[in-house]
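WARN retry 2 of 3 for item q-0093 after timeout on previous attempt; input resubmitted unchanged.
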Amino acid sequence: MVGVEVLGGRIKPKVSLLRAEDNADLGEIEQIQDQGKAIGEAKVGQQVAISMDKPIAGRHIFERDVLYVKVPEEDAKCLLTAHMDDLTAEEQEVLKEYVNFRRKKELFWAGV
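OK item q-0093 returned
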C-alpha cells in the first residue's frame, strides 16, 4: 500500500497510473482504502492508500511523485470535443494539464 493525496479529478480501482516526471507506466490500481476500509473511488482532497501490483514504494514510486491516471488518447479526444460541459471546472483543468503533459512527449497527442 502506498499513501496518495488526490490533487485533481478522481481515482478508481482498475485504472493505470503514469509518473509525471518521466511518463513511466506504473501499472494498475488494485484497491483504494480510506482508514482501512476499501472504497470504490477517491476524489479531490482525499488522502488514501492504494495497492498496486507492479511498482514498489522506494524503488519505482517515491514520496512527492506526481502521478496521473492514464487516459487513453481516444477518450481524451472525446472528452475535449464532446464532453467538456459534463466535467466540473476543476476536472476540465486537470484534463488540460494531462493533455499538455502527454504532449511534451507526443506533440499532437489527443489533437482535435
